[in-house]
Amino acid sequence: MDMIMEYGSIEDIPIYNCTGVSTFGKKRVTIGIVSMTYGTIMCILFLPCLRTMLLPDLFKLSCYKIMFYVGVVDVLALIMNSIFTGWLAYHGAVYCTYPEWIYLFGSAGLSLWCCSCLANILLLINRILHFKNQQLAEKVFGGQRTFVLLLAPTFYGLYFLFFTKPVLFTSVYYAWFFDPFIFQNRANDYINLLHSFNNIAIVILTCILYMYVGCMVIGEWKKTGTTVKKSNNILHQALVICALDQFSSTVYVAMNIIEMPEWTIVVAQYFWQSAHGFPVITYLTMNPTIRSRFFTIFLTRH
């Protein structure tokens, strides 16, 4: 976004100028329809879940504050990486087909991805603390402190929105790359090192936290002979969500650095979509509180 302010418009940015560039892409009708349908269904499922999280007896808990925040980010991300992406794939678009829209949505999508990565790590830390030391968890996340902590992923995401290069869609590979593929041998001009740092850091942090959770559960088992169930459901949900982030992070870093088979790139796109859509499935299958109230809200409306 800073380059738009510097040059006045997207088309006036030299490395993103599409003058004389072909807009030939690859129509992906089936994938496009599937992507749009998936994104729409996930967004619809999210809405009653988000409403449930806002109920006073749940929203007073720090974990539901973070889950609501992550849910809103996920819905916005699904609009970009599933619904809008599906529409672009259906029409066989590349960057130069709709440069302004793709640039803006790419900036927003990157921002939302990085924001959700940090927010999901925050949720995992929240659950680990509640599992291990509820008194410390209350000191860190109690009262309005959760909202203060959520400023970190908010400003983190905004930094990526305004001060880093966006991802740009191409139907040729059905994915978002930093390189718009409009100039030969200039891929290095589009490298986003901060994005690579974000994804690598997510992988490392997630691995460390997974190992800690493993040691923590083994320790509880040795002490009690059973796995303690306090906060377990939401802890498991956080682990699943972070696992999806971890896989997506790894593949997206790799495919922007080295040449990869097309099927791998398509799978990476699906995992990115799953990282934002699958949380609602974990809420409905692994969280009895949200599941029961979800159906209450849904049946009341119908």
From TrEMBL:
InterPro entries: 7TM_GPCR_serpentine_rcpt_Srt. It comes from the Eukaryota. The keyword Transmembrane helix applies. Keywords: Membrane, Transmembrane, Transmembrane helix. The chain crosses the membrane at residues 31-54, 66-90, 102-125, 146-176, 196-218. PANTHER family: SERPENTINE RECEPTOR, CLASS T. This is Uncharacterized protein.
